[in-house]
Amino acid sequence: MSVQVRTFARLAEAASAISSERGARFLGGGTLLMRAVNEADPAIQTIVRTTDSNLSHIAVSSGRIELGAGATMAAILAERELAFLHPAARAVGGPAIRQAATVGGNLFAPSPYGDLATALLALDATVMLAGGFAQREVPIDEFFGRREREPSLVSAVAFKRPAAGAFRFLKVTRVHPKGISVLCIAAQLPVTSGRIAGARIAYGAMGPTPLRAKTAERALEGRALDVAGINPALAVAGEGTNPTDDAIASAWWRREILPVHLRRLLLSVGQE
Amino acid sequence: MKTPIRFHLNGEEVATFAESGANLLDVLRESVGDLSVKGGCWQGTCGTCTVLIDGAPRVACVTLAETCDGRAIETVAGLRRGADLHPLQTAFIDGFAAQCGYCTPGMLMAAKALLDRNPTPTREEVVDAIAGNLCRCTGYEPIIEAVLAAARSDNRRRA
Amino acid sequence: MLELRKDIFADERDDNLKEIGQPTERQDILGHVTGTSAFYDDHRFANLLHLKVLRSPHAHARIRSVDDSAAARAPGVKRIIRAADVPVNLNTLLSLIQFGKDDEPSLATDVVRYKGEPILGIVATSERASLEALAQVRVSYDPLPAVFDVEEALKPGAVSVNATYPKNTFEYYGKYDHQKLRFGDVEAGFAQADVVLEERYQMSPIEHAPTETNGSIAVPDTNGRFVVYTSTQALFFSLDTAAKINAMQSNQLHFIGGTVGGGFGGKVDTLTEPLAILAARLTGAAVRYRLSRHEEMQFGAPRGAERIYVKDGVMNDGRIVARKVRAYFDSGAYTRLSSYAAVKCAAHIPGPYTIPNVHADVYCVFTNRTPATAMRGFGVTALDFALECQMDKLATAIGMDPLEFRMLNAYRDGDMKAHRREAKNCALIECAQVAAQKANWPLREEFRRMSSRQGGTPTRAGTADRSRAPAAAAAAPSAPQRVTYEQPAAAAATRPAPAVPPRQTTPPPPAPPPPGSTHGAPRFSSVFGTRRR
After folding, report:
1. Exposed site from A3, A90, B81, C201, fewest CB < 10 Å?
2. DSSP bridge partners of A138
3. How is domain A167-267 classified at the architecture level of CATH?
């Protein structure tokens, strides 16, 4: 009948509850979970939550940044040290949603949601999982590959601070200033002597999870970030993508506009 | 299964028993009887049910009610300053910023969240503040103008 | 700010205006900004029950069986409402004015005809209990082929959507499958034209998406009466519809509403009241039937899709000499109000322009889509989109300014319209002139001097109805709101006007209702085809 709510003081206890009960879901910000509860989704019988304040920590050191899975978009936007990530955090919903939406929730949000998760993929983040007897760390692309099959609970993500001006984010949406992604693109574009070295490009809403545009990344290697330099990457912009039709846009449309927006992102002045 | 919840609503202490797993919108309307909060989607996407929790704007329909235990919640029912209207309310009236009125409570709370922390917003900041609130009637322009007018009048009053 | 151009048509008006042009406070806005305006759901009742409905997942299917036995035993369930429980389970909205045949069930019986069609209702102690019980209802369907396109639906051998109208078109006056407008000879017009242009215009269904979804609460009152709080835009219309479906006298229902959280036409179809009332009758309790946002999108009626073909013949000097329109309204699976939308469309063709040869066929077509309803000027809005896009294309085709092109072809007072009515109180020319001024859009001198009151004659359109005189021959002004005026002698008809009877100053009494009518509603001339003379 009504959904049970179980509250735990420590994340590890919540993790056991998640893995032991079939109908249990972890409450992040609630923006997706509570919607399903409101619609009487029969798959959800128990809401598991924690009051563990560790979950929302944000730790910024000179090279490394760690975001607790419970950190909200609003908390990220309040951190000046995370200014490079603000375009991605601001892209999630409106101000009220951002007060609730969490890093962890965004990692599990199904496509076409997952704007921050896409940014984290371009940042080569490591995902820390809670539960079991030891913390496990997995690279974020491996996490996306497994998230449907294995129930897990994320405790935090960590990544290296990108070089100044090297991180860019763009979201394509029909409704401004907020709306669900038609697609989004996050890119780390480190430049050495005017040439790209080790680019990371991630797409959101172009497949069942955020994905890396590895062919485009290779095509950018050693190139200049100008009109001529990026052409080979634009030609292979869509390789490896597998968008679907949904209420927001058709797969065809997403494939058509992807290279247009990748071009704009690559040629834009670096964002803050 | 009923869960006890206690919080402050518009400055008054409230206690109720809510169905386990209930969202804050349903608790406010059904258990506590504050009908000034409206529901548009119960999906967290329209912003109609925007309330303030400890001063921050929140979408009540996707907020698990029991997470609000001990918090201070504000709804449009508490917006008036006694017999006087809040400057936002006056500005909405003067600026024809409501037609059917259904999105209005949520708009007012989203705007209040902005003005409480930023009394001199730019137009862009107002647009961002109401970005999570859908209106099907006004086309938004009268609402944006009313929030800016309220900011100006409130600042003149305080000056 | 609002600007009143009182100089235009000043001689036709009494301009003692005290309210018009002055801002005034909305009478409900204080309630809106304090959250005290009472929408239908802002009323609470002890032991309120909740009705939710099982809906077809198929666009078209036969229902083989419905097993609600597990649902009936589910926790919190008070009553299951089945098709057999509905006292009058076939209706059409405009039966209230005897227009159309009953074609739509409140709960589907043997066939479902659109995705989202209601099949069964469950009344329970909470919405959640009702939804969980609905999940336990087992329905087996035989899916049937479906049709989603208006022209496909009219092809021979097409899937038959609506059992009452098996050929997929609404029937007008018991025998016509479309609305027809004929004036002059369009083929002769096309033959004479310098340029002929045919285009197709279309649109998808449009969802009103009101911030407040459709819903109602029915509450047992005393003496077998029910009070109904409702989101409807049309209190009496919904009351009468609900009374008919429930086989109740209308004086047993008290509808309370009027504060609508966004209507736009999407809250006239009386989607929730009939079943809410039935549920209240069957349980003896107050019952709320509220559409979720998902139901509002899927089941809530949209503005119907339309497809419109416009073929025009135009002369190089700018005169449109022929207009042929073929329009299709996608009514979805049932009639609702689309039959009337097609009438309005036909009444609006060819737009506010004097065209000597006009030919129009307007169809109200059934498809396996959600039944369509009214929205913001329905019947006319999409047609105007088509006609005005066409006007721009025609102007381009002959190299004429699009605004001057419209002014050249605009109705003038005294012109004969394709519907054989005299054009009166025309103002398109003046509107265009003011718009051009505001937009700094250059108009040639002759267009700046044009007037709606000059140049109109019954013969300008070519086919004059000789039993009607032009405005110039009227002896005296008629009823106060109808204005007549002298035409300048130079613009008078070239033939002497035939003698005419003096104009009546009061309209003739309405015709008595036809035999067999139950409601005695006055006949609507546009609906029944009679004309005022």
Report:
1. B81
2. A127
3. 2-Layer Sandwich (3.30)
pLDDT at A20 (0 to 100): 85
Q: What is the number of other CB atoms lying within 10 angstroms of the CB of residue C294?
A: 16
Architecture of domain A54-160: 2-Layer Sandwich (3.30)
Which tokens belong to A197? 């070295």
Which chain B residue has the Cα nearest residue C259? Answer: B100
Cβ-based burial of C533 (10 A; exposed 0-12, middle 13-18, buried ≥19): exposed
SS3 call for B13: strand
Q: What is the ipTM of this complex?
A: 0.97
First to last CA, chain C: 41
What are the φ/ψ torsions at residue B131 (nearest 5 degrees)? -60, -25
Q: Does domain B2-78 have CATH number 3.10.20.30?
A: yes
DSSP string for C40-107: TTS---TT-EEEEEEE-SSSSEEEEEEE-HHHHTSTTEEEEE-GGG-SS--B-GGGGGT-S---B-SS
Tell me: the pLDDT tens digits for C459-497?
Answer: 877 544 433 344 433 333 333 333 333 333 433 334 444
Q: Closest Cα to residue B2, out of A3, C452, A246? A: A3
CB hemisphere CA count around B129 (13 angstroms): 29
- Among B22, B62, B67, the residue with its CB nearest the CB of A31 is B62
Choose one of C458, C474, C490: the last residue of a domain: C474
Calculate the alpha carbon distances from C89 to C126, C183, C319 in Å: 26, 42, 53
3-state DSSP call for residue B67? helix
Judge whether B69 and B5 are in contact, CB under 8 Å. yes
* Amino acid identity, position B74: E
Interface partners of chain B (CB pairs < 8 Å, 3 or more) are A, C
Q: What is the pLDDT of residues A18-69, one digit of tens each?
A: 888 889 999 999 999 999 999 999 999 999 999 999 999 999 998 999 999 9
- Delimiting residues of CATH 3.30.390.50 domain(s) in chain A: 167-267
Q: How far is CA B67 from CA A164, B21, C56, C123, in A?
A: 39, 10, 37, 30
What residue type is assigned to position C128 of the chain?
R
pLDDT tens for C83-94 read 999 999 999 999
For residues A48 and A6, the answer to whether their CB atoms sit within 8 Å is: yes
Give B-chain residues touching A42 at CB under 8 angstroms: none
For residue C462, what pLDDT is reported? 59
**Same domain assignment for residues C396 and C413:** no
| Domain that includes residue C327, residue range | 146-206+302-400
- Count residue pairs from A and C with Cβ separation < 8 A: 16
pLDDT exceeds 70 at position C393? yes
Please compute Rg for chain A using Cα positions: 19
Planar angle of CA B72, B73, B78, nearest 5 degrees: 115
**Distance (Å) from the alpha carbon of C30 to chain B's nearest alpha carbon:** 7
Q: What angle do CA A132, A135, A137 make, to 5 degrees?
A: 125
HSE on the CB side for B87, CA within 13 Å?
18
Probe site for chain A from C50, C73, C128, C291 (most A CB atoms < 10 A) = C128
